[in-house]
Amino acid sequence: MKKITTPLNENQIRNLKVGERVSLSGIVYTCRDQAHKRLLEKGRRNYLWKGQVIYYCGPTRRPKGKVIGSCGPTTSSRMDRFTPALLAQGLKGMIGKGQRSSEVIAAIKKYRAVYFLTFSGCGALLSKYVRKATPVAYKDLGPEAIYKLEVKDFPLIVGIDSQGRSVYKE
Q1: What does residue 50 show for φ and ψ, rounded to 5 degrees?
Q2: Which of 1, 23, 46, 141 can bridge 153 by disulfide, Cβ–Cβ 3.0-4.6 Å?
Q3: Can you list the domains of the chain with their CATH numbers?
């Protein structure tokens, strides 16, 4: 298993290959449909995405004594219409589940980014890899707010590498 940390850099991304298992540590940001709309459809550019990773996740309410509630991946294709614009702004990684459109795959290649998969149906287990969770934007959206997550050894699989190779097509 390859260990990587955020923010991601060109060398890390170039060395990731489709299907490879990865352990990710550092900062990731949750961002789902409604937050994407606010970020891009209204022309807001209040985030510096350079080298950052977005996790398509809407955490559940935090149980007493826990850092975060269940935090499993959301179907990534719902964010496909927003993804090329974020990659153009410097986003380097995305975490989710499911296939991506041909437009997103082309943008991943163009901007030399990576798409990771994580285990669906395992949100409670994945929450154990989150060390800290802080809402940073759009708190009115509840679970769709943008959260800054500090993760340690978060388990991933390279779903689409920077060359555009996909686990769904290889």
Answers
A1: -55, 115
A2: 23
A3: 2-160 (3.20.130.10)
Q: In this predicted structure, what is the pLDDT of residue 61?
A: 86
| CA separation, residue 44 to residues 35, 52, 56, 143, 146 (Å) | 11, 17, 19, 20, 14
Q: ∠ at Cα 140 (134, 143), nearest 5°?
A: 55
Closest listed residue to residue 132, CA positions, set 33, 53, 30: 30
Residues facing residue 23 across a β-bridge: 3, 155
Per-residue pLDDT tens digits for 36-76: 888 877 655 556 788 999 999 988 888 898 999 999 999 99
CB atoms within 10 A of CB 134: 11
For 103, how many CA atoms within 13 A lie in the half-sphere containing its CB?
10
45 is annotated as an active-site residue: no
